[in-house]
Structures are given as structure tokens and as C-alpha cells.
Amino acid sequence: MHEIGLLRQLVRTVDAFAAEHHIPVVREVTVDCGELSLVIPEYLQELYPVATKGSMLEGTRLNIHIIPGLAECDACDEIFNVIEYKGFCPNCGSFEKTVLSGKDFTVKEIVVPDPEDEESSSGAD
């Protein structure tokens, strides 16, 4: 289960970004998780509270955006979903392909509270 290692790296990455940009609070993090990345989204959600415990991300929300695993057939140039067609081109049946998307796991977005929301929730006028 490499998801815990990915989440620990995510915490380090967001923490470093927040420090560099003087961001004191993060509300949520969105990641792109490719269908072909071998990362299991359910494990990410389950382990997120454990991996973020004691960090600035503790109590934040994790959003996972699934990126389809698309490929282009080397024989006929058809673009298809690798998972849906089990790696074979639906047009010509070839297994030879070039993967176009869906292999990565990246931080897509870091959401911070709006300063105006912070002021209104603290009762400031």
C-alpha cells in the first residue's frame, strides 16, 4: 500500500507551498489521480486523516479528481480508454498503444479560506 507514502509526500508538498507563500490555513486539497497510476482512491480517502494528523492539513478535506487512462492506438490512431477496453484498441484490436493520460498523481488545487469569510465568522465588523 503505497498510498500512505503518497499522502505523506502530499503533506510535505502542501506544507512547503504554504510556508513559501505565507498561507496560515488550508481548507481543502484536490488531487488528480490517474486511472493508470495504480493509486486506489478509496485508500487515499481512508488514510488521509491518519497521514495529516498533527499537520496543517489535519481536519481538511481531500477531493480526488479521477483522470481517465487514455491511449492512442499505434496502428490506427484511435484514442480510447485503456481500462474500458482492457488495453486493446476498440477499432482495430491492436494492443500497441501510446498512453496519453491517466498515469499521474498530482496536487491540483489547494483551497484556502477567503479572508472575508474569516472576518465574518470571527464576528469582526
What does this structure look like?
A three-stranded mixed beta sheet has the order 2-1-6, with helices on one face. It has a three-stranded antiparallel beta sheet with strand order 4-3-5, with no helix packed on it. Mean pLDDT is 91; it is low at 119-125. Strand 1, helix 2 and strand 2 form a beta-alpha-beta unit. It is elongated, with a radius of gyration of 19 Å. With 125 residues, the protein is an alpha+beta fold. The chain has helices at residues 3-20, 41-52, 115-121, and strands at residues 28-34, 61-67, 70-73, 79-81, 97-101, 105-111. It has a single domain, classed as hypothetical protein PF0899 fold (2-Layer Sandwich), CATH 3.30.2320.80. Helix content is 30%, strand content 26%.
Structural features:
hypothetical protein PF0899 fold, alpha+beta, three-stranded antiparallel beta sheet, 26% strand, 125 residues, disordered C terminus, three-stranded mixed beta sheet, single chain, elongated
Largest sheet: 3 strands, mixed
Terminal CA distance reads 49 Å
Query: Any idea of the CATH topology?
Result: hypothetical protein PF0899 fold
Low-confidence stretches: 119-125
Q: Give the SSE string.
A: HEHEEEEEH
Strand content: 25-35%
Short characterization:
The chain is of the alpha+beta class. It is 30% helix and 26% strand.
Topology at a glance:
Elements: H1 3-20, E1 28-34, H2 41-52, E2 61-67, E3 70-73, E4 79-81, E5 97-101, E6 105-111, H3 115-121
Parallel strand pairs: 1-2
Antiparallel strand pairs: 1-6, 3-4, 3-5
